[in-house]
Structures are given as C-alpha cells and as structure tokens.
Amino acid sequence: MSTHHPTLLLVHGAWHRPETWDRLRSELDARGYQSRTVKLPTTGPNPRGGMHDDAAVVRAAIEDIDGPVVVVAHSYGGIPVSEGATGLPKVQHLVYLAAYQLDQDESMFSFHGVPEPEDKEGLFPIIADPRNSLYADVPDAEAEHAVSRLVDQRLRAFTDRVGVAAWHKIPSTYIIMDQDKAIPVPEQERMAVRAGNIRRMSSSHSPFLSRPADLAALLDEVITGRA
C-alpha cells in the first residue's frame, strides 16, 4: 500500500447507505488508495436530525483520519461536506460527484427554487422511478439490488441551509454526469462553475456502480494533478 496518497473519505447521498461505495472502494484499493465511508444520520434505518447533524458526522470522520484527506461527495452528500469540511487544513481537495455544491445560506430547496414547507420534520419520499433516475446505466440485477437497499430520508436535510461553504477555501473539482436523470446537467453546470476544476463522465447519476474503474481512474487524475 502506497503511503503518499491521501485517504479518500466517501460521503453518500440521500436514501443511500455507505456500502453503495463498495465497488469503487475495491478499485481505489487496487490503485493504492485507502478509503473510508460515513453513515449520514439523516438517512435510514432510523433517520434523525438534519443537514447539520450530517455535517458533524463528516467533520468527525475527517478529524479521525491521520494525514491528508480528499473528500468525495455524491449528490446530497455535497451539502454536509461543504459545511463539515470548513476550516480543516488536512482536507486537500473536495470532489463533488454530481453533487450539490451549495453556497452560504443555500439549501437544496432554495437552490431549486422550491418553497420550504412549514413542517420540516418527517421524511422526504424516495425519488420517483429510482431505477431510471439513479441507476439508468447500471446492469439490471445490480440496479434492482441497489433500489432494494434504498432507505428513508429526513426532510430537514433538504431544507437546512449552509452556514460556511468549505469550497471557498479548499480546492474543489466538480464531476458532471452527462447522462444524469436525477440532477439535470444544466443544474450540475450551474454548480460546477463554483469549483476550480470541472470534469465530465458519460454516466448516469451513480458512476460508482456503473463505471467504478473509470471513476477511480478519474479520481486518481484529480488527486495527482493530471486532471
């Protein structure tokens, strides 16, 4: 195992579990990278809290890693990463993987121009047609398994607003998924301009399942400065 690489902290999106990263972690391991995952508390089973609780878990996970860290956030996971990584000098880079790269005082709802409900407690329904929305280019058997593993998601995670956005001080890369049916490409592009580096993949929303080897190679390029 190479010791000069940073450790990658992989932060999942809404409705997902940490094991969604398993195929990518195998590819990263083959390239000499150590990786860790977190379990965001706003996702089930037994979801609780809001985005700031997720950010606290991300921050604790970063602080628990010895040496430099690159944080890779998928989808909703970008929001608590931007909040939780703030002011941590060991974080070398933030990678937003079809993720919400929000700015101060933004929430997912406000970014999309959706009015916030008066009651922010309770759950937010799983995205419509998850097989097509999240896993359009994933083989059927694996996509069906992934859908069966989706869990409940707290609504408050989508309405809580970012306090301080870490990407203002930490270098960042946005990876746009050109075939994404969950976060439309124009909306990804609107956030990607906030990053210092923009890359693209020909993939639907979940390249860690559809193209894990290609994603690991791209992350290696980003980390080593070849992207």
Describe this structure in words.
The chain is α/β, with parallel strands linked by helices and 227 residues long. It has a 6-stranded parallel β-sheet with strand order 2-1-3-4-5-6, with helices on both faces. Helix 1 links the parallel strand 1 and strand 2. Helix 2 packs across helix 3. The protein is globular and about 50 Å long. It starts with 6 loop residues before the first strand and ends with a helix. The relative contact order is 0.19. The model has no long low-confidence stretch (mean pLDDT 96).
Q: Helices, strands, pairings?
A:
Layout: E1 7-11, H1 22-30, E2 35-37, H2 51-63, E3 69-74, H3 78-84, E4 91-97, H4 108-111, H5 130-135, H6 140-148, H7 156-159, E5 172-177, H8 185-192, E6 197-201, H9 207-210, H10 212-224
Parallel strand pairs: 1-2, 1-3, 3-4, 4-5, 5-6
Helix pairs in contact: 1-10, 2-3
Essential attributes:
single chain, about 230 residues, alpha/beta, Rossmann fold, six-stranded parallel sheet, 10 helices, about 35% helix, globular
Q: Largest beta sheet, briefly?
A: 6 strands, parallel
Q: Please identify, by name, the CATH architecture.
A: 3-Layer(aba) Sandwich
Strand order of the largest sheet: 2-1-3-4-5-6
Kindly state the number of beta strands. Answer: 6
Stretches where pLDDT is under 50 for at least 5 consecutive residues are none
Distance between the termini: 23 Å
